[in-house]
Amino acid sequence: MMEVCNCIEPQWPADELLMKYQYISDFFIAVAYFSIPLELIYFVKKSAVFPYRWVLVQFGAFIVLCGATHLINLWTFTTHSRTVALVMTTAKVLTAVVSCATALMLVHIIPDLLSVKTRELFLKNKAAELDREMGLIRTQEETGRHVRMLTHEIRSTLDRHTILKTTLVELGRTLALEECALWMPTRTGLELQLSYTLRQQHPVEYTVPIQLPVINQVFGTSRAVKISPNSPVARLRPVSGKYLLGEVVAVRVPLLHLSNFQINDWPELSTKRYALMVLMLPSDSARQWHVHELELVEVVADQVAVALSHAAILEESMRARDLLMEQNVALDIARREAETAIRARNDFLAVMNHEMRTPMHAIIALSSLLQETELTPEQRLMVETVLKSSSLLATLMNDVLDLSRLEDGSLQLELGTFNLHTLFREVLNLIKPIAVVKKLPITLNLAPDLPEFVVGDEKRLMQIILNIVGNAVKFSKQGSISVTALVTKSDNRAPPDFFVVPTGSHFYLRVKVKDLGAGINPQDIPKLFTKFAQTQSLATRSSGGSGLGLAISKRFVNLMEGNIWIESEGVGKGCTAIFDVKLGISNESKQSGIPKVPANPQHVNFAGLKVLVMDENGVSRMVTKGLLVHLGCEVTTVSSSEECLRVVSHEHRVVFMDVCTPGVENYQIALRIHEKFTKRHQRPLLVALTGNTDKSTKERCMSFGLDGVLLKPVSLDNMRNVLSDLLEHRVLYEAM
């Protein structure tokens, strides 16, 4: 065996083999050391954010030196020169220096590297948190999308029942609910009634007390609350023992706080009330309510509350609209009925006016004719009584017609320029005969600054003054009466609700009529201006009167933008009537035009004056003829317009035409007479006889070319004045 072993000798000696391994190892170490710096250089070049590039350069130098040391060490395995030993020593010294410097540098760098690692971990945590937030945002966006969808569906109608049913359906579809229900408060407010469910078309009217702890818990917060599936409000479906009930949440739905109206049969509420919405997840499932789902439920509950409030407001507005339409229809019917009644009243008054003025015309005319004859004192007294009574009745008729037109607004002021001073003197001339009989002195006081010529309605102003002065004479048995006219100043005493504002073109006339008669109780003064009303103190005086004078005067004063009132300290102390009216200031310095009435109409001679009278009423025709014949006229009478057109000739100086009948036939005769007499001096003067006192009658007469209008009834003096005016001026100034 020894021989065999000695025969096998190794190819390399043991020491040489070790040296050989070291040599190969040093070669690969050198190669590796030289390749690592190349890789580090590539890393540094490609990395744009690494903060320790100089450390890598130093570390690369260390590796290069280590590789160089191992590479030089390859020549030390054989016999080598001193130069190799010197290079080897230098390489090892440099390697030692660089390695020590690198080690010391790493002592300072490692904490920084550790902090970088910490920040990296922090950033990773932040990235994870950001991912969670992004997931939450995506969830919220999904929730918002569902909310918008639900809101659109809920608000697509304003019907309360549709809103609630749509809410349950959309929530059930969006959240995949097994059941969803809405409990509404009853009319008593003490219970909740199951009104709407998702799965049942007609839910059983099941009620629960509103004071249950679970209900108070839900009503106490605006958030969605998880409740027990076994609570009374959650028992919406039959319970099966083999299934585990799903989670249930409930949320309150605020109902509109009602103050002035009710929703359907709901009562008026004084405290805030809620409905209860219950939502149930599917049974026998591990699904739970998520936060975003609860938020969706809360938002939907608020949207349902808003939609219900809008629906309630719409329902109330619809009811208010229907009520308003009904009221408008009723008002329109009432207006039409009132207009019909006014038209009927006006037509009745017009007919009665005409029918009453015709016999009144006969009574006054014949009485005035009778007064001209030889009468005994007793007969003359009776005739005068008839004339006075007839004049009073005519005045009453005028007052009734004026009041009617004042009430329906058809009466308008006829503005014109007139002499204010003359108007007061005419009033006194009319009143004085009655005052002289009663031995009542009347004085007139006109202020120095009172304008002489003014612009206003002369006829209505005279009517007001005549009414007031006439009342003073009528209700006074002794004493005196004073009439004062002045310009109203801002500091003059007046009622608190009346303010005088004069301008450059207008002023306010104040008239004060004071008497020392029986006076009146202060508490009775407001009654004086009520139509057809008299106070007891006045009624017991046996002075007559209809109770219309002051009522009409007040309305005339109001038309003239003025005010009227009466002052009295009591019965037996007299009274003072005061009124203010607005008048225009005229620039005229003297009366324009021609006097209205001749100075002495009684002395005018009408003998031989040919007059034609056309009147369909035989009595009225006969009475008018009697008046004219008494004045010396030669009178021809006709009963129709055709006969009038045939009879009239150039010899007739005046034609009196009755135009009281409806239509325009009698007006047309005036146009045909104008056509028949082309020359003005040959055409007779045309005067309308009418019982209508309205302005339209006068305007129509003038538009058809008539020269004047004479209002029935007509006395002898009236007829004398009319003929005097016509013959002197060829126009009748006192038309109505």
From TrEMBL:
Residues holding Cu cation: C66, H70
Signal peptide (from-to): none
CDD domains associated with the record: HisKA, REC_ETR-like
Compartmental location: Endoplasmic reticulum membrane
Needed co-factor(s): Cu cation
Cross-link Glycyl lysine isopeptide (Lys-Gly) (interchain with G-Cter in ubiquitin) mapped to chain: K712
Residues binding ADP: N471, A472, V473, K474, D515, K531, S546, L550
Cofactor info, note text: Binds 1 copper ion per dimer.
GO MF annotation: an example: phosphorelay sensor kinase activity
Entries under PROSITE patterns matching the protein: HIS_KIN, RESPONSE_REGULATORY
Residue ranges occupied by any Histidine kinase domain in the UniProt entry: 351-587
Function: May act early in the ethylene signal transduction pathway, possibly as an ethylene receptor, or as a regulator of the pathway.
Protein name: Ethylene receptor
Species name: Brassica napus (Rape)
